[in-house]
Amino acid sequence: MTHPLNTGGDRGYLRIATEEACATREQIDGYLRLVREGKADRGTTSLWGFYGTSPSERATTIVERLLDLDDRRIADMDATGIDVAILSMTAPGFQVFEADEAKAMCGRANDALAAAVERHPDRYVGMTSIAPQDPEWSAREIARGKAELGFKGVMVNSHTKGEYLDEPKFDPILRACAEAGQPLYIHPQSPPDSMIGPFVESGLDGAVFGFGVEVGLHLLRLITIGVFDRYPDLTICVGHGGEALPYWLYRIDYMHQAGVRSGRYERMKPLNKSIFGYMRENVCITTSGMAWAPAITFAMDVLGEDRVMYAMDYPYQYVPDEVRTHDLLKISDAAKKKLMQTNAERVFGL
Ligand code: CA
Q: Does any domain span residue 279?
């Protein structure tokens, strides 16, 4: 039986979901080991202490779905009419491990994802995971992901042990993305220990709020340090409706210019464009976890209809009705096709 959402070619566009998570058993076991041994940061302890050990249905089905790269995932995609899933290894990726272990685990995960894409070439697209603890290795892995594994983008789970990609030592990663002509997707993880205190004590550290605050900060740090002046053709993607930045953009832009003029902060320097300009020309956002018509249409209005892409956030927010929310958006057919299909094809070079 065809699910009512799965209307195939009748709808006039493919549904390409752009922020869809998977995991290897080794990766999840690694998180659990860090938690067990007291070596995980507070965010990983909170997140994977729940998903990895809770007997609740939410936790157990999410882990099962993360691990499945075949029948169950394809059946879930069919049930909701997702034609293509752009897959990446789930947060916090390999960024919470010691460098040598992270690199070994990350390389094996990239190989496993490439094999899954090879088994389902019409349904999956892969993104390269990295281990920013070793920026030069990560740069080589980005090149390998493109040349040997057929991956179309690069996934980073925000900060690495409290460090952000605007630190000079991470430049090889940004350069490798620019040289590969592939987008860098900054996916959330929990705020670092230096920031998480007030979040975790109120239960607001995870996807509920902490994720968005942390990734919004990360993207803004990259913009204000001038990453897009260094790499004018680089595209950075963030999910969750742009992690609140579109809504704040007017004030951020105004106060950034005021801050630059004041000379008050050493790192707040004149840039080639306004923050608004970078958001419209170098940043793409996705609707992962934000299947909410007012937010989607607002983001399209602010950033332009070429800058917003559909995502489901499988398996964390596997809600079939959210697909319908996108289908029923009161936007033109041409804009809807960009949102659901052609923006992703352009950004990821499909
Ligand atoms: Ca996600």
A: yes
Q: Cα–Cα distances in Å, from 82 out to 265, 324, 341? A: 46, 11, 11
What dihedral do alpha carbons 46, 47, 49, 55 form, nearest 10°?
130
Distance 127 CA to ligand 1 centre (A): 13
Distance 314 CA to ligand 1 centre (A): 7
CA 231 to centroid of ligand 1, rounded, Å: 26
Asked whether 92 and 162 are in contact (CB, 8 A), the reply is: no
CATH number at residue 343: 3.20.20.140
Instruction: Look at the block and give the residue holding tokens 């892995």.
Output: 141
Angle 156-160-161 (CA atoms, 0-180°, nearest 5)?
155
Distance 342 CA to ligand 1 centre (A): 21
Q: What is the pTM of this model?
A: 0.96
Q: Ligand 1 centroid vs 47 CA: distance in angstroms?
A: 13
Cα 259 to middle of ligand 1, angstroms:
33
pLDDT tens-digit series, residues 278-312: 999 999 999 999 999 999 999 999 999 999 999 99
Note whether residue 45 is domain-resident: yes
Give distance in angstroms: CA of 12 to centre of ligand 1: 26
> Based on the structure, what is the number of domains in the chain?
1
Let me know if residue 9 belongs to a domain.
no
Closest listed residue to residue 116, CA positions, set 108, 126, 101: 126
Q: Are 139 and 48 in contact (CB under 8 A)?
A: no
Between 2-6, 139-143, 337-341, the lowest mean confidence (pLDDT) is in 2-6
Ligand 1 center from residue 173 Cα (angstroms) = 21
The alpha carbon of 86 and the centre of ligand 1 are apart by a number of angstroms equal to 11
Instruction: Please tell me the distance between residue 255's alpha carbon and the centre of ligand 1 in angstroms.
Output: 30
Domain housing 90 = 16-348
Domain membership of residue 4 (yes or no) is: no
